[in-house]
Amino acid sequence: MGGLGGTTSLSPVWLWIPAFIAVIVAVSVASAELQRFDHPSVKADVSLSFLVIGDWGRKGTYNQSQVSFQMGRVADKLNIDFVVSTGDNFYDDGLTGINDPAFQYSFSDIYTANSLQKQWYNVLGNHDYRGDVEAQLNPILQNIDHRWFCQRSFIVHTEIAEFFFVDTTPFVDKYFLKPKDHKYDWRGVLPRKKYLSNLLKDLETALRDSTAKWKIVVGHHPVRSIGHHGDTKELLTHLLPILEANNVDMYMNGHDHCLEHISSTSSQIQFLTSGGGSKAWKGDVDKSGGYGVKFYYDGQGFMSVELDQMNAKVVYYDVFGNVLHVVNLSKGVKYAI
Ligand SMILES: *[C@@H]1O[C@H](CO)[C@@H](O)[C@H](O)[C@H]1NC(C)=O
Ligand SMILES: *[C@@H]1O[C@H](CO)[C@@H](O)[C@H](O)[C@H]1NC(C)=O
C-alpha cells in the first residue's frame, strides 16, 4: 500500500478544492516505488486534453503574460483537464521559501483565466534547485493556490494515458562538478548515485508494468534538442534506453527556451520541447546538429495535447495564438508524420 502517503499529505487541501478541480487521489501500486496519483476523467469519452508550458516564472515579463493569455484561450476551446509544467517554475533562483511572494507574482497572478483553474502538475528545473527546493514540494502551497502540485518524480494515471514525471536535474554532471557561483539545494538527492539508480529502477519498473494506451514521460531537461543547451548526454545514456525499451510515445521537456519537435530514428518516441513560457529568442540554434528535427521555433509559446484511444494531436502556438506546428500520432498504424 505504498501510495497512501500522498492521500494523507494532500487531504487537508480537499476542503479548498472547488468541485471543478479533479481531486488527486493516490492509488497504491505494489510494483513501483514511484508514487502514483489518479486523475479521474471528466469527459464521457475519456478523451484528455492538456497544455504544456515550461521555463516561465518571471513575474509576467518576457511575454510570460502574453503566453498566459493565449493559453487561456486555447484551454477554454479544448476544455483542458490539466496543465503540465516542464520546470524552471521560478526565476532566477527558485523560491526562497513557502512565503516567497514570487509564487503569487509569477504563478497565481499570471495564469488567471478561468480555463486555467485546473490542476497544474509541475516538475523541478535546474533553476528551481537554486532556491529552497523543498518549498516548491511543500503541499502547503496548495493553501495559497489549490492548482499547485509538485513532486520530484511521480506518476499521474488517467483512463487512457500514464504520465511519468522525472526529476532530471540531478542527472546533469555539471551542476555538481562546475556549479559556478550557483548554490544548489541538494537536500533529498544525496547520495546522488543512489538517488539516480533508485529513480531509474523505479521508472523502469513502472513503465514496464504500465498498461496505459499512451505512455508520456515529462522532465525538465531535453533528451534531444538542437537549441542552446542541446542534447542532455546523461539522459541519452541513462534515460533514453529505458524509454525506448518500454514503448514510450512522447518525451516532453523544457530547459531550452524554445518550441521544438524531434522524432527518433530508432523508436516511436517523439521528443517535444515546450520551454517558451517567458524568456526566449536565444538565437543559437544548432542548424547542423539534428537528425529527425521536424520543427524548431526560437520564440515564446506553448503546446496543447489532445488524446483519445486512437489518436494524439499536439499543437504548438506562438505568443499571438498562431498555430506553428501540428503533430498527429495514431495507434494501430505506423506513425506517419
Ligand atoms: C514578445 O513576443 C514578440 C512576438 O514574438 C517578440 O517580437 C518580442 O521580441 C518578444 N519580447 C521579448 C521580451 O522576448
Ligand atoms: C492532423 O489531423 C487533422 C485531423 O485531425 C488534420 O486536419 C490535419 O491536417 C493533420 N495535420 C497534419 C500535419 O498531418
Automatic annotation (TrEMBL):
Q: What is its EC number?
A: 3.1.3.2
State the InterPro entries in the record. Answer: Acid_PPase (IPR024927), Calcineurin-like_PHP (IPR004843), Metallo-depent_PP-like (IPR029052), Metallophosphoesterase_PAP (IPR051558)
Task: Give one GO term, molecular function aspect.
Answer: acid phosphatase activity
Which SUPFAM superfamilies does this entry report, sorted A to Z? Metallo-dependent phosphatases
User: Which ranges does the record mark as transmembrane?
Assistant: 13-34
- Amino-acid positions noted as binding Fe cation 2 in the UniProt annotation, renumbered to this chain: 88, 126, 220, 255
* Note on how the cofactor is bound: Binds 2 iron ions per subunit.
User: Where does the protein end up?
Assistant: Secreted
Q: Which domain of life is it from?
A: Eukaryota
Where on this chain does Fe cation 1 bind? 55, 88, 91, 257
Tell me the organism. Pisum sativum
Which reactions fall under this protein's catalytic activity? a phosphate monoester + H2O = an alcohol + phosphate
Obligatory cofactor(s):
Fe cation
Recorded protein name is Purple acid phosphatase
Q: Which residues form the Calcineurin-like phosphoesterase domain?
A: 49-258
**What keywords were assigned to this record?**
Glycoprotein, Hydrolase, Iron, Membrane, Metal-binding, Secreted, Signal, Transmembrane, Transmembrane helix, Zinc
The family classification in the record reads: Belongs to the metallophosphoesterase superfamily. Purple acid phosphatase family.
* GO terms for cellular component: extracellular region
Q: What CDD domains does the entry give?
A: MPP_ACP5
Q: What class of enzyme is it?
A: hydrolase
